Amino acid sequence: MGIYSPLMETIPKIISAPTAASATSNTARPVPPRPRQYDARLARWLVTPLVNTPVTPNHLTTVRLIVGLACTWAFAQGSYAMANLGAILLVLSNFIDHTDGELARISGKTSRIGHFYDLASDAFVTVLLFGGIGMGVAAAAPGKFPLPVPLSASTLGWIAGVAVALIFFLRMRIEERVGKSGTKQASVGGFETEDVLYLMPLVTLFDGTRGFLIAAAIGAPLFALLVMADYVRVMRRPLPSKADAKVAADAGQTTQPEAVAPMAPAAFAADAEIERAMDAIDFDGVTREFKSQDAFIYMEKFLPQSVTEQLIAAARAVTPNVNRNYLPGHKQGGSVSRHTLDELAPFVAELYRSPALMRFLERLAGEKLLPSPQDDPHAYALYYYTRPGDHIGWHYDTSYYKGRRYTLLLGVVDQSSCKLEYRLHTRNPGVAQVDGAVAYPPGALVFFDGDKLHHRITPLGDNEERISLTFEYVTDPRMGTWQRFISNMKDAIAYFGFRQVFRQIFGRTKR
């Protein structure tokens, strides 16, 4: 279902792929259970003839997106006639939103990209819908405030849209934690709560768009607070242990895969080499330098050669998965998140959890360090500068966690003129700022408190290449709901792309 209404429960569509053969197979495919909702039943009946055709669920998602955008445009015009047209298009868009999922269920035409495209379309259309309704009300009565507060109708629309987007995000996080049962909507007589959207033509017919906007602007934020409370409650609930999962399995019960505690990391094969390399370091001198430079240290030779060679091999292996990004005036380059590295370059994850490495960093920091949570795509990541001009501007590695976040940079490939330029003591009143620049070749180390070091990477030159590895460790892995939302959106837009960032959610389901 879509997620248009802010006054009702909003869930992502998790549509299981059939376990049978492809759509063109002559082998009979098990038919999924008949939908309980009437609109879903009608949608399945309509798309059944498309099973053995070139039409895919993504085609239907595109149609739904186009109709949804047309609905938004119609509402934004502000006239009575266009509002009624928008309501009709809303009903049509909401119904088409069922067809892609039903086609995916009965045909086996599923994909991770398709599932993400479906959810992204839902969120995009929903936010724009409320914005369009607000713009239309403002156009119909310019200069008037729908509520006795200095907020325009357009502002109220965007408030409702953003609140629904937050609801959508939180519901996905809850489902990731406890499964689909945690986001199940109420259903009565073959209708779900969000099916009230089919009554939207009655709202516009009786010229009730303004009242609907006011209700949405008040109800959506309030419901977002309820969902936020539900999210906090779910996140505080302890996950079943592996022993509990075994007991459940013995009893014939099923347990959500994501609810089982992760396996302990495999023993790090090269840990002994790192331990020996640590013995050759003047630790007292390094610690004094780290403290005098306000939690910053650079070591040109750190990793053993054999470890560096394995990192280079890992970086080459995941090169096809690099996500390129460009933020004008700030950064340009490529990156690969920890989720992809877990699948294609597990050596990186082993190094990240190396007991010897973590002991060394904890002694430097003077406090207990913990790995970043499993859903943090930034926990360990590779960064690729492969095109002229690739760079990142001045920034801090701002921590959204409740504790501090330390950044470890390791050189992997450096055939470039790039430099890490930094400014020390920028946040120490009364202490003179110190500027510096280093190049970290393969095996070099840079370690610092992300909230203290102001730094950048200078632009890559022609025919140059630079690849570096970043590890992030935290002192407190807790993060607020809003901070997690901001962090994920920042990582999706500026670094890894939505697919890599949200693959923990979308990767477990297909459409």
Automatic annotation (TrEMBL):
Belongs to the CDP-alcohol phosphatidyltransferase class-I family. InterPro entries: BesD/HalB-like, CDP-OH_P_trans, CDP-OH_PTrfase_TM_dom, CDP_ALCOHOL_P_TRANSF_CS, Oxoglu/Fe-dep_dioxygenase_dom. This is 2OG-Fe(II) oxygenase. The keyword DNA repair does not apply. The lineage of its organism: Bacteria, Pseudomonadati, Pseudomonadota, Betaproteobacteria, Burkholderiales. PROSITE patterns: CDP_ALCOHOL_P_TRANSF, FE2OG_OXY. Pfam families: CDP-OH_P_transf, HalD. Keywords: Membrane, Transferase, Transmembrane, Transmembrane helix. Residues 376-475 form the Fe2OG dioxygenase domain. The chain crosses the membrane at residues 65-95, 116-141, 153-174, 212-232.
